Amino acid sequence: MTHLWQQPEKFDPDRGSLRTYLLARTRSRALDIVRSETSRKRRESRVKGDHRTEAGVDEMVADASTAEELRDRLSSLKETEREAISLAFFGDLSYRQVAERLGIPEGTAKSRIRAGLANLRLSYGESAA
């Protein structure tokens, strides 16, 4: 309802009833929340599963080398992409939180993160899926 209240021009009675519009918006919003939570939980489990309590020297050197390479590759991204990715992955923020922190629409935050990740994949020689 708040979406309709804040942006009444988005509702077009020629496209359907008010009820249908509100149900579609509610469903869309619910799916966004579920996807966001699923993604956040996936990121958290990757981070938790990646911690090693007794890493060998070789592993520590490899990890440091990988971290340095990642920093170099991140620095080659556009500032807007790098900032959004850093907030999302290193700051553990959702798309919405990234958007709020940067003062941009949520869709723009998603686009910047996805574009930055695609550019990182390309810099590693992988195809951007």
Describe this structure in words.
It is a single chain. The chain is an all-alpha fold and 129 residues long. Among the domains are: 16-48; 78-129, Arc Repressor Mutant, subunit A (Orthogonal Bundle). Helices cover 74% and strands 0% of the residues. The chain has helices at residues 2-6, 18-50, 57-75, 79-90, 95-102, 106-123. The model has no long low-confidence stretch (mean pLDDT 78).
Q: How many E-type strands?
A: 0
How many helix segments? 6
The low-pLDDT segments are none
CATH architecture of the domain at 78-129: Orthogonal Bundle
Summarize the structure.
The protein has 129 residues and is mainly alpha-helical. It has helices at 2-6, 18-50, 57-75, 79-90, 95-102, 106-123.
Brief descriptors of the model:
129 residues, 6 helices, Arc Repressor Mutant, subunit A, mainly alpha
Q: How would the blueprint of this fold be written?
A:
Layout (H helix, E strand, L loop, with lengths): L1 H5 L11 H33 L6 H19 L3 H12 L4 H8 L3 H18 L6
Helix pairs in contact: 4-6, 5-6
